[in-house]
Amino acid sequence: MDPKAGRRERKKAATRNHIAEVALRLFAERGYDEVGMRDVAREADVAVTTVFAHFASKEALVFDQDEQHEERLVGAVANRPPGRSLIDALRAEALSAARWFSAPESIAFWTLVENSAALRGYASRMQARHEQALVAAIAADPEAPATATARRALARFALEAYSLARQADDPLAAVEETFDLIQNGFAPR
């Protein structure tokens, strides 16, 4: 949260975070399919309309960081420092995210997602949205690959590094290996 944000914005963000935390706790305790929006509202001590004012759907309660993740992806490309390559910027962002993947809360989060068809579907649609945003950011970059296919492939492989890292025993090594392949190709060494 921006420290310069006004009181109203801070309260709104705090309410949103509180609702998301309560929802994740309830989903972990009872199972995603067993908890409704009314249950979340009751436990968070807010009106159901307040929950919907902050989250468009039950799935969005779980993926409350969706917009921030997309902003970081696009920002890694658009706001990278001079001299940092496009691939190095995407690698750095993936490494930053991968540091969280070994944490117990991350493991619990992704277990929740994997155990729900609705959440797996939402995650897939979210990944497609992120891919489109990343392709657009890459296309606007001076280092962009020349063809639309190459730009889509770079975005897709960069995003797949996150999935591979989540499933790896060593998430950081998985990101490094994936980006080495992206950067150097698949030729034997």
UniProtKB/TrEMBL annotation:
<protein>
    <submittedName>
        <fullName>DNA-binding transcriptional repressor AcrR</fullName>
    </submittedName>
</protein>
<dbReference type="InterPro" id="IPR050109">
    <property type="entry name" value="HTH-type_TetR-like_transc_reg"/>
</dbReference>
<dbReference type="Pfam" id="PF00440">
    <property type="entry name" value="TetR_N"/>
</dbReference>
<dbReference type="GO" id="GO:0000976">
    <property type="term" value="F:transcription cis-regulatory region binding"/>
</dbReference>
<dbReference type="GO" id="GO:0003700">
    <property type="term" value="F:DNA-binding transcription factor activity"/>
</dbReference>
<keyword id="KW-0804">Transcription</keyword>
<dbReference type="InterPro" id="IPR001647">
    <property type="entry name" value="HTH_TetR"/>
</dbReference>
<dbReference type="InterPro" id="IPR009057">
    <property type="entry name" value="Homeodomain-like_sf"/>
</dbReference>
<feature type="domain" description="HTH tetR-type">
    <location>
        <begin position="13"/>
        <end position="73"/>
    </location>
</feature>
<feature type="DNA-binding region" description="H-T-H motif">
    <location>
        <begin position="36"/>
        <end position="55"/>
    </location>
</feature>
<keyword id="KW-0805">Transcription regulation</keyword>
<keyword id="KW-0238">DNA-binding</keyword>
